[in-house]
Write a sequence for this structure.
């Protein structure tokens, strides 16, 4: 049996298996079809129905359940998450598991299409070391992402000493589209 | 590998909602690659990702197999399993499969061949260690027997593995 205790390990291994056997396009289909529309359909039902309140409810439950170090911040126009200690990337780093070139891509891979369906867009960065930030807002909002500390104050991961340490490469997404990557 | 589990988390028990993703992954791969492709995925997983488990079983024999499964099910949410060590085999009496239980409780459509993954993954991990597995039951409870390959048991009869729903 494969289990949930080490789920992130075989989940990450599966990314490489799918990319090797079906290409990058199939891996992106997997995140959209299998994760967004099947596994996490409870998330999309909640967020499509309740918008920002649904996001607070879903990520509040999920990140706490997974033991993440995280904070959230919100205005009436944006919902922000700062993850200081990603539990799944942390599991991979601690166990030296890295089959796929960028595990962190899976989050935007399923959350991006889900929020697009609900009329939201995402600004996001991850540093491949278990830290990332997200700002979700309506696609009709034209404002750029907040400056470091502007919205999340001292909880903003971009202010931490480990955020942009030497040899780390940060992947950036602006309005759900990748703008720079380590690949 | 001294710890029975090759990959360690900081939480004692995994998050049950990940069973949704496991079930969805099987469905996706079956849709894209067919049953043969899904079986190949399970076999590759058993051979590659679970290689440290296989090595441990090779080094420690039946005791290693029993120790592994005790630790494994202790870390799966709401699993009810007896691990019985016999002279020539290790038997897992799975009274409550945690995956099927959680998927059912959440009204998820379970992939029909879900229970077959236990055979293909375990057989792929057991074979290089000189062991084989036979499974009977499924759909929420089953018996899994790990034996030495030298026992020369008949091949797995897939009609004995129930469809999940």
């Amino acid at each position: 049996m494969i289990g949930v205790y080490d789920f992130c390990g075989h989940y990450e291994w599966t990314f490489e298996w799918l990319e090797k056997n079906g290409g990058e396009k199939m891996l992106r289909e997997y995140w959209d079809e299998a994760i967004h529309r099947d596994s996490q359909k409870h998330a999309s039902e909640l967020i499509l129905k309740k918008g920002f309140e649904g996001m607070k409810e879903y990520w509040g439950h999920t990140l706490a359940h997974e033991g993440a170090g995280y904070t959230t911040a919100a205005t009436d126009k944006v919902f922000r998450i700062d993850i200081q200690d990603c539990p799944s990337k942390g599991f991979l780093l601690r166990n030296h598991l890295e089959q796929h070139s960028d595990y962190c891509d899976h989050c935007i891979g399923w959350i991006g299409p889900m929020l697009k369906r609900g009329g939201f867009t995402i600004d996001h960065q991850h540093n491949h070391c278990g830290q990332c930030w997200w700002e979700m807002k309506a696609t009709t909002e034209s404002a750029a992402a907040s400056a470091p500390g502007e919205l999340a104050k001292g909880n903003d991961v971009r202010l931490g000493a480990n955020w942009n340490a030497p040899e780390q490469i940060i992947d950036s997404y602006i309005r759900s589209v990748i703008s720079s990557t380590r690949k | 590998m001294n710890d029975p589990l090759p990959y360690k988390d900081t939480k004692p028990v995994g998050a049950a909602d990940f069973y949704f993703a496991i079930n969805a992954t099987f469905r996706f791969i079956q849709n894209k690659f067919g049953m043969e492709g899904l079986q190949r995925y399970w076999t590759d997983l058993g051979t590659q990702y679970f290689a440290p488990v296989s090595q441990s079983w090779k080094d420690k024999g039946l005791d290693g197999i029993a120790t592994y499964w005790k630790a494994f099910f202790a870390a799966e949410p709401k699993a009810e399993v007896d691990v019985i060590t016999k002279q020539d085999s290790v038997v897992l009496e799975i009274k409550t499969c945690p995956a099927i239980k959680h998927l059912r409780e959440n009204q998820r459509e379970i992939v029909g061949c879900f229970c077959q993954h236990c055979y293909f993954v375990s057989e792929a991990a057991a074979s290089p260690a000189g062991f084989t597995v036979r499974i009977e039951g499924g759909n929420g409870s089953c018996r899994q027997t790990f034996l030495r390959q030298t026992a020369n048991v008949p091949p797995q009869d897939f009609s004995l593995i129930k469809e999940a729903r």
Q: What stands out?
A: Chain A has a mean pLDDT of 92.
